[in-house]
Design a protein that fits this description.
By secondary structure, the protein is an alpha/beta fold. Helix content is 43%, strand content 14%. The chain folds into two domains: 1-30; 33-316, Rossmann fold. It has helices at 2-25, 33-40, 83-89, 116-130, 142-153, 182-187, 190-195, 202-211, 221-232, 236-245, 275-284, 300-303, 305-316; strands spanning 46-50, 53-60, 69-72, 95-98, 135-140, 158-164, 262-267, 289-293.
Length: 318
C-alpha cells in the first residue's frame, strides 16, 4: 500500500509540474490597446466614443453615398475580416465597419453585456454617431445574427441584408451538430477559461482559425498574428467567456416579418454552422436568395473575398 501511495504521489507531482511548465511556456498577459494600435489601427482607422467605449472603426468610400454598407464581424474576429470586401466596394460605395464590444481593439463592454439585444443597440448608436439614417447590413456568424436582429428591430432603417454563415437558430435544429473551434470550447469551460486569461498557446489560436476555413492552407502566419493579438487585447479573453455564456440563439420568428432584399451566402464546408441553417434562413426570409460556395468554410468572405464579394456587388447592382 505504501509503495502504491508513493507512486501515486509521484504521478500527481509530475502532472502538476508538467502543468506549471506548460503555463510558464504559454504565459501570455493582456496587451494594452495602445500597444496594438501601431500594427492594427493604421489609417483609415479611427476611435470614436460610444457608450463609454473607444470604438475602433473605419468609414471609407464616398461620404455622399445615401445608403452605406455596414459590415459586422463574428466572434473573436475584427473589422479586418472585411478587408477584401472593403477594397472591392469602397470605390463606389461608402463602407462602414467596426470592432464589436468584447472583441478586437474596441475591447470589453463596461456593462459586461454581450447579448444580441445589446449589440443591436450598439449598431444603432454607431449609425447615429455617423449620421447615417438608412443602410445595408452585412454580417458573418454572430455578426450575421446581429445584422438580422437589427433589421427586425429597425425595419425602417435597414434597406438590405447580407447574411454570411449567420447564427441564430437553436443548434438542435440541425441534423449535423455544430463543431466548435478549440478556442471556443475552452472558453465554455470555467476552469480552463480562467487559465486562458493568463496563457494563450499560439497553436490553439491557429487550430481554431484553421477549423473555420474550408481550406486550412489559406491560413497565413500573419492571419494567426492578427487573431492572437485581438485575443490578447486587454479584457477580451474574459469578455469571450461572458459572450459564450449568453448563447447564439435568437427570436427567429421575427425573420418572417422581414420584407427587404436579402442575400444569404454560405460556405459548404462550414463545420460550425452547417448549411442547413442557411437553407432555413432562405425559407424564413421571403424573397431571399441563397448562394453556396461548396469549397469554403465558416468565414467565406475572409477565405475568398474576391469570389464572394462578386456576388455581393451583383446584389447591390454595382
Amino acid at each position: 500500500m505504501k509503495i502504491f501511495l508513493r507512486s501515486f504521489l509521484f504521478v500527481v507531482i509530475g502532472v502538476l509540474l508538467l502543468g506549471v511548465v506548460a503555463v510558464v511556456l504559454t504565459w501570455a498577459p493582456d496587451k494594452p490597446v495602445d500597444e496594438l494600435k501601431p500594427r492594427w489601427a493604421q489609417a483609415p482607422s479611427q476611435f470614436v466614443a460610444i457608450d463609454g467605449m473607444q470604438v475602433h472603426l473605419r468609414d471609407e468610400g464616398p461620404q455622399s453615398d445615401p445608403l452605406p454598407i455596414v459590415l459586422i464581424h463574428g466572434t473573436s474576429a475584427s473589422l479586418h475580416t472585411w478587408d477584401g470586401w472593403t477594397a472591392a466596394l469602397r470605390g463606389q460605395r461608402r463602407v462602414i465597419r467596426f470592432d464589436l464590444p468584447g472583441f478586437a481593439l474596441t475591447g470589453p463592454n463596461p456593462q459586461n453585456d454581450y447579448s444580441v439585444q445589446a449589440y443591436v443597440r450598439f449598431v444603432t448608436a454607431v449609425m447615429d454617431q455617423r449620421g447615417v439614417q438608412r443602410f445595408v447590413l452585412a454580417g458573418n456568424s454572430l455578426g450575421g445574427q446581429v445584422a438580422w436582429a437589427t433589421a427586425v428591430a429597425l425595419p425602417q432603417r435597414v434597406a438590405g441584408l447580407v447574411l454570411v454563415d449567420a447564427s441564430g437558430y437553436a443548434p438542435e435544429s440541425a441534423s449535423v451538430p455544430p463543431s466548435l473551434p478549440l478556442g471556443f470550447r475552452i472558453a465554455r469551460m470555467p476552469v480552463l477559461r480562467t487559465l486562458t486569461q493568463y496563457t494563450l498557446p499560439r497553436s490553439v489560436v491557429e487550430k481554431s482559425v484553421r477549423n473555420v476555413y474550408g481550406d486550412p492552407a489559406r491560413v497565413t502566419p500573419e492571419l494567426v498574428d492578427l487573431y492572437v493579438d485581438m485575443t490578447l487585447r486587454a479584457g477580451n479573453r474574459k469578455a469571450l467567456g461572458r459572450r459564450m455564456d449568453q448563447g447564439y440563439t435568437g427570436d427567429v420568428a421575427g425573420l418572417k416579418t422581414l420584407a427587404i432584399p436579402t442575400l444569404i451566402l454560405w460556405g459548404g464546408q462550414d463545420r460550425l454552422v452547417p448549411l442547413e441553417f442557411g437553407q432555413r434562413f432562405a425559407r424564413d426570409i421571403a424573397g431571399s436568395k441563397l448562394v453556396v460556395f461548396d469549397d469554403l468554410g465558416h468565414v467565406p468572405h475572409e477565405e475568398d473575398p474576391v469570389r464572394t464579394v462578386a456576388v455581393v456587388r451583383q446584389f447591390l447592382g454595382l
